[in-house]
Structure formats: structure tokens, C-alpha cells
Amino acid sequence: MSAKVTALEPAAGSAELAVADLMRRAHAAMDAYENHDQGRVDEAVTALAWSIYKPENAKLLAELAVEDTGLGNVDSKIIKNTRKTFGALRDLLRAKTVGVIEEDPAKGMVKYGKPVGVVGAVCPSTNPAATPVNKAMMALKGGNAVVIAPSPAGYGTTARTVDLMRAELKKCNHPENLVQILPAPVTKEMTQALINSCDLAVVTGSQNNVKRAMTSGTVAIGVGAGNVPVIIDDTADLDDAAEKITASKIFDNATSCSSENSVVILDAVYDQTLDALKRAGGHLCDAGEKSKVLDGLWQNGHLNRHVIAKDMNIFAEVIGLSPAAATAKFAMVEDDRPGPDRPLSDEKLALVLTVYRARDFADAKRITNAILEVKGKGHSVGIHTARSHACPRTCRGNRRGPSAGQSGPYLRQWRQLQQHAAVHALHGRRNLGGQQHQREPELPPFYQHHPSGHDDRRRQTLRRSSVRRLLVEVRQVISCWRDGFHEF
Fold it and tell me: Cα–Cα distance between 190 and 192 in angstroms, integer?
């Protein structure tokens, strides 16, 4: 590579001195960064995206991540490295962050974009390539520099990722030190020193890191645990719901924070839903296998690193499940109630799905609230239903989950409605086919959901045409970048 990260040796073991040197370099890079020019800022952001989106790099980093951490699988990580980055680039290129970004003549107010400073980005072992790139893209979009604190388990992958980002920045004459990484070996003390020294801490992964960032005195954004519960009601398309839950559950061996950890099924369709989940690839554990899951997935109250995020055949072999389980896509374990004394209601990071039976919709909401009280407050909750009014009822009735899904069509509700429709399209979860209209209608802003008066078919058509246009726009940018053109 044309640019390499220089690993710093902490002087006399001082994490503070090592971080201080990184901060000095970052501030110097910001002084040289042309962050007053929106075109140059967007060029830098696109350079970072291309560093991981480039097919050979996406594959290399996916393979390194699995080799370094032992978590997930290569195919899913290639999708993360490309489509996750693709979606982030799509959104970032449509945003204005330089100069006047908003005016309100009625109030006489003008809003200007202003860098916050040096961003400290703490990244998890479950996503050691895509998360650093995406955080760096967002930091540079705001005119900032970023210092990345990787997970020790994923250090090799993240260091290589940073090498690739710096190389692309150098190609378009941007300061390479806009993106840096903590020197190896990364320690808790060094990560904490970065959190204390940076201007904004953005923390994903360890909940201890999130708590330390939130109490550090530094402005911080912390991403909490997932542990997503999903309701399946008696009007859902059961096979459709089962296929979608399976696709989400097995993606990267359940390392995603949005992966379903529990399903809450209404009694009226409980048995039929279990059958649908079996057809989709699930294995229903008997009482003996349930005990083995409980004994093998947790050890001394902590998740067993030897089985989390492993392929199903490995998981089944290590904890002693049946041959039928080893050939399934994931395991289902029934439980009668969630609670702090019930590990199965916690986040599992493994190919295990907890199944609860609910008497009715009100009982289903009660169960989901109880699950999120164990872990996952403020993250997500979903529902598969054909009743359009069930989604807002789920959102309002669930104090801890900001979003819900709908099966047939499968949507995310409300504020993130169209964003999630696009993400599902990028992940191959939506069919972008259908008739091509001669003239595509003008759409409201992408993040604004359509008025409730529109019928479902028209809303679906509008979303599809919006996604098509966005895909075309970003592919044109990627194509130009690949061919060496840097004019946007």
C-alpha cells in the first residue's frame, strides 16, 4: 500500500501520551483539510467508501475479520462491507454540511455547518471493518478528523482498514492523518484516554465502553445493545415472516444488533408459526437440548466465546445438540417468560432464537417490554402483521423500542420508514422489479413518510422508484471514482 499507519509506542507505558500525539496529528490534519469546500469534503467521504467497497478490498477485509475474531462468516461480512457502506454514502452525499445548511426567514435564523473537532470512534469486534469506515465517513463529512479505537480481537482487520482509507485519502490529496488508529496493543486505559481527550466520542460495542463514554464528561453518542424482540400476530403471512426472520437471524451468524433474539407469537397462530419457522430452516429444541443451550451458551454468567457467532454445525457440536440441529440454520428454544433470571431473554449473539407464546396482542406487548427491560432498551422492536394500525400500536405500546416492522409489505415504522425500505432493498430483501413508469413522480424528502391517506400500493411504488434513483446516483459516483474521476 502507498500509505501505512505508523504504530506508536506509548512512552513509558503512558496511554495519555500516545493519545496526545494522535490528537496533535489529527488537529494538524484538520487545519490542512479543505473542509470549507463541500465538493472536496464529499470527495474525501467517497474515497473512504471506495477503500472498502472495492470488491477485492471488501473480500480481503471480510476474510481478515473472520480470521482475526472467529466471529461471523465471510459472505455476510462482504455484504456488510459493501452494502452498508453503499447506503451510508448514498445518505451522506445527499446532505449539505458546509456553509449555510438551513435558513428560516420567518424566524430570522441561519444555521451554519461547523466541525466539532476530533472524533473518537470506538469500534466492536463484530464489525471491525465496516464500522470504522462508516464512522470515518460521517466524521469527515462533518469536516472532522477521526481516531479509531478498535477491539483488540479485531485489531489486525481494523488496522488494515485504516491503511486502505489513508491510501485513498492520499490519492486525492487529503491529509492522511484525518484517519488514525490507536497503536497496538489497545488497552482499556488507552481507549479511555481517547474518550477523555477527543471532542466527540462515538461508541459501538462493549456496554462497559458505552457507560464509560457517557460518564466521561466528553460529548458522547453510545449505541446500546440490540436484543430485538419481534411479534407475529394472527394476520401475518407466516411463511413470509419466517423467511425474513431467518434471513436476519443467520446473517453474519447473528452478530448484528438488529438480529432477532426473540419472537413473541400470538396463541392463535403459535403452532402454525413454529411450523413455518421449521420450514425456513429452524430447529425446535426439546427440553434436553434447551438445557444444553443454557449450559453451553453461558458460562459463569457470560456468553461463551467458543460458541457465539459460529456456524450452526459448530455451535451444535460444541454444546452437544442433535445431528438434526447441526444441519439446521438456527435453533429455537421455547421459554415461558422473560426476566433478569432468564438468560434466554438476554442478547445471545448466537444462532439461537427464543420463542414466547402470547395470549393476545396486549400480552405480546407486555412480553416484549419485559424482554427489553432485560436488555435492549431504546433499540428496536418489530411486528409481522397485515393490520396497518398494529405498527403504531406496537410503537406506542412499547416504551423501549423506537421502530417496528410490518409483514406484507414489510416496513419499518414511522420515522425510519423509507430509510429502512431502502436498506432492505440494498440487502436483497425487497423485490425492486415491477413495471417501469414512464415518468417517475416527484417525492417528498427521503426521510419523510408518506401521508397516511395514500394507499399501500402507491406507497410501495413510490419507495421502489425512490430506491432505484438513489441506487443509480450512488453507482454513478462509485463508477466515476473507480475510473479515476473526482469531479462531483
Answer: 5
Q: Could you tell me the residue range of the domain that residue 41 belongs to?
A: 11-223
- Over pLDDT 70: what percentage of the chain? 77
The predicted-structure confidence for 138-162, as pLDDT tens digits, reads as follows: 999 999 999 999 999 999 999 999 9
235 and 214 share one domain: no
398: left (phi over 0), alpha (psi -120 to 50) or beta: beta
Of these residues, 123, 198, 257, 395, which one is catalytic? Answer: 257
pTM exceeds cut of 0.85:
no
Residue 395 annotated in active site: no
Which residues of the chain, if any, have pLDDT below 70?
A: 1-13, 389-488
| CATH (domain of 384) | 3.40.309.10
Domain finish residue from 195, 223, 251: 223
d(CA 189, CA 329) in angstroms, rounded, equals 40
Is there a single domain that holds both residue 258 and residue 367? yes
Sequence-ordered strand ranges (E) for 363-454: 382-384, 404-406, 411-413
Q: How many domains does the chain have?
A: 2
CB atoms inside a 10 Å sphere around CB 36: 12
Q: Please report, as a single letter, which amino acid is at residue 382.
A: G
